[in-house]
Design brief:
The chain is of the alpha/beta class. The protein contains 5 helices and 13 strands. Helices cover 22% and strands 23% of the residues.
């Protein structure tokens, strides 16, 4: 098990099952639906077997064989990285944390949240009380032994229902995003407090809070503790916090 996933900030969900049950086909269709909704989705394949992504004799393969710990290649639209295990956490984190969510194929033995595929006979690849099972996927007829249970049960062709379930799961897993507006005080050059300066009839402070409020669960106004901001302290219910470093000049 790769322990670094436990601290991973981008929400992810594993898809686990025996070979040939349709994991890749379903994940592929889910990726298409996420792209249609302008959601940047990542895909990660956990393979218990050795794999090869390079071609013998090519420049990158020769560099790997010579002992390079990391080999990277790019063109005008894509990039690829091959790295030893020692570099795995760094390279995966930097690449996948730029996504909104991640679909992982594999890790059926892990405690991570997972959608588990039944085989053609309705058998699970892991014990039914295994940690992290969030939904079951079946093929053919509804497996009666799992019907009526609390855990969601989907046919593997119910793409829209599965997509809605996965999307809702990611929303529940997402961390809250907080923003802060750093508020300036008195300005001799401007002749008035910086926070009160207006642009097109609205203060810069209020404009910044409104912009952040579109994307953040909570917005803070950060200023000196002794700064009197008057009515601006109630902008969009922004919470006031005090600067810890007051003698370091502009941020």
């Amino acid at each position: 098990m790769d322990g670094y996933w436990e601290q991973f900030k981008t929400p992810f969900l594993c898809f686990a099952g025996f070979s040939g049950v349709g994991k890749t086909t379903l994940v592929e269709r889910l990726v298409t639906r996420f792209r249609e909704e302008k959601i940047r989705v990542g895909y990660y394949k956990h393979d218990s077997h050795r794999f090869r992504m390079d071609t013998t004799g090519k420049d990158t393969a020769r560099a790997r064989e010579a002992g390079a710990g990391i080999v990277a290649i790019n063109d005008s639209a894509h990039f690829g990285v091959l790295a030893d295990n020692d570099f795995k956490q760094l390279t995966i984190t930097h690449a996948l944390e730029r996504c909104d969510c991640i679909l992982i194929e594999g890790y059926k033995q892990s405690p991570f949240n997972k959608v588990v595929f039944l085989d053609a006979e309705g058998k699970l690849p892991i014990p039914s009380d295994s940690q992290g099972i969030r939904a079951l996927i079946y093929q053919g007829k509804v497996p009666q032994q799992f019907s009526g249970q609390d855990i969601p049960l989907f046919h593997r062709d119910e793409i829209e229902n599965i997509f809605d379930f996965v999307k809702a799961h990611f929303k529940k897993c997402a961390s809250e995003l907080h923003g802060a507006v750093f508020v300036g005080g008195e300005s001799k050059r401007m002749g008035k407090p910086k926070f009160s300066l207006t642009y097109d009839g609205i203060s810069g402070t209020e404009k910044a809070v409104k912009v952040l409020s579109k994307f953040c669960n909570k917005v803070f106004l950060s200023s000196r503790a002794d700064l009197d901001m008057g009515s601006l302290t109630k902008i969009n219910n922004a919470e006031r916090i005090n600067d810890e470093h007051t003698h370091m000049g502009p941020v």
